[in-house]
Protein 1
Amino acid sequence: MIPFNKPYLTGKEAHYLYQAVYSGKISGNGLYTNKCQDFFENKYGFRKTLLTTSCTDALEMCAILLDIKEGDEIIMPSYTFVSTSNAFVLRGAVIRFADSCIHNPNINPELIEQLITPKTKAIVVVHYAGIACDMDVLMDIANRNNLFVVEDAAQAIDSFYKGNPLGSIGHLAAFSFHETKNIISGEGGMLVINDERFVERSEIIWEKGTNRAAFFRGDVDKYGWVDVGSSFLPAEIVSAFLYAQLENLEDIQRRRKKIWNYYYQNLKQLESEGKINLPLIPDYATNNGHMFYMVCNSLKERQKLIQHLRDNDILAVFHYLSLHKSSFYADKHDGRTLSECDRYADNLVRLPLFYELSDSNLQFIVNTILNYFK
Ligand SMILES: *Cc1c(COP(=O)(O)O)cnc(C)c1O
């Protein structure tokens, strides 16, 4: 069976893990945490980064930093992972789900302004498949309405909008290093703070509501409880693993993009025949090889295609179910129909994409798809 995903190891993980374990400091905020954070700050120019135990945790930190309270409203796409909304629902927020674009599953900026009320606090955008949302338009809406923007950049490492790294544009951003992403640490994530106003407090929330990070830097002579917070920082063991991955970022990205391009080049004929739609990458966006998806013309067609691939030992999978229709949120949703979101939920299928996917397997997958549509 060709799996959908296979976590890739660069070979250095065990070595750095060993180093971390025998350095005598295995809790968080040590050498490897700082190496990883420095890597991101230097490479992408993020104002400040904090490793977290997951992207989910980084999103929860965003909700705390933005001071989200009972009844505050947050606008976000319905076609996303549950954590995007759960992080805000945990603080009592009401989610106003917006529909996706016609040409890709990102939030449709044209539908946002009609959802803004005096209670709206933030817009959370998701760069689906690592392909940028139209950030100039979104930031303009946010600025005119005095709202914060959080980028759920879980899938968006090393991807750009008009030359700017994703994760550097919103007030805050969250990345994931879950084993299904491009760069992994098993579970793992990172908060990016781009707005100066959140820099100091972010570190306190990260360290259980204490100013311990400042204490270790020597900025204060004792540390104590100064704010709310939780245990968001990963152990050095996790960041040591992550560092090995980051050292190989370019190589990993090169291979993933090569696979992505092969799929695209060999399947675009099906698109011109009207049988499927392929990902559209707008001029302002780049592709980071996170995911290769196709959109079928119907749910039935997608199910038949997935079955056909499975019959040929290929595991292809669908993706999100509409959050506004979920059993948890359906009765809290305001009743609007989100037809593009539902279309992606029904018709989108993701193909195997991982570093070690061989060229022969890749050819086989493409041929199996071409045969299906013959
Ligand atoms: C993977 C993912 C998350 C969650 O990441 P974790 O690190 O597993 O918490 C959140 N949002 C999106 C869009 C994702 O793809």
Note: The mean pLDDT is 97.
Protein 2
Amino acid sequence: MLIKKQGEIPSSEITDKKVYLNRRAFIGGAAAAGAAIAVGFKAAGLFDPALHASANAKLQFKPSSFSTNEKQTPLNDVTHYNNYYEFGTDKTDPADEAKNFKPTPWKVKVEGLVKKAQTFDIDTLLKIPLEERVYRMRCVEGWSMVIPWIGFPLSALLNQVEVQPKAKFVEFTSLLDPNRMPGQRRAVLEWPYVEGLRLDEAMHPLTTMVVGLYGETLPNQDGAPLRLVVPWKYGFKGIKAIVNIKLVEKQPTSTWTQAASNEYGFYSNVNPNVDHPRWSQAKERRIGEFFKRPTLMFNGYGDQVASLYSGMDLKKNF
Ligand SMILES: Nc1nc2c(c(=O)[nH]1)N[C@H]1C(S)=C(S)[C@@H](COP(=O)(O)O)O[C@H]1N2
Ligand SMILES: [Mo]
């Protein structure tokens, strides 16, 4: 992400238009099927844990009122235009290099300043009621997508471990395993990938622990089996393949801050008025669209989140 990528053409822009439109029609069908599953689940009140155990299983979920109605980015772009340096630095690398990654079994430790530190199995987390949240995503590089994520609020998990009053921040850590993540054999970043949120950001209802997209468990290249999504912040805050969540008193660092602290700050709120040192953040290219569109403050989620930052200088706290 530090490097050369600005001029790159998204695959959807070079795809033959007819193929592209057919693909969209197919995705529309898949989304409708997802809605049917959600309704069926509600009506029958069923829960079948077996459905969640294997990779790319169908998930049961309810729709969320937080979802945008904007046109969803085709599944093929969501899974072939990725940033995931553990599996290569090119957008198309993760689809290929993460192909054989086994995201199960998987455990996540939640620890630090909590009353009941606990290690959760991914199957246990999948029993938390799931919602489909169609969010706008904005990468710091200047492209954006609309993705139908499936997950649960991070607050649901943090409430289970009972956060101590002393905790002020949450620190997230990705898997460190160079045998399974070939990109970690290269020193392009410091490993493991780490990220952080202020506690009130972490507890905000929009902040989501994601386990799936487009109706199924997460594809490996999108962060299986568990990743964070914070829709009002630049995409790199959405740490993938999380193995540890720690409640702490002091502001944690993040991988991109370690790599270039003048370019990537702790907050990383989407902000069209604060340019990246090497490019403007005023506009973005929605993957699949030709013309750029203006970037919205807090990625369009200002009504819900602006109050978290009242009184803060967002140029200083970028
Ligand atoms: N562990 C890990 N998480 C990561 C990254 C990464 O390289 N490693 N890249 C980040 C960046 S820069 C972005 S834009 C999003 C991309 O998520 P997506 O590929 O599902 O769209 O993942 C974020 N999470
Ligand atoms: Mo990004």
Note: Residues 17-44 form the longest helix (28 residues).
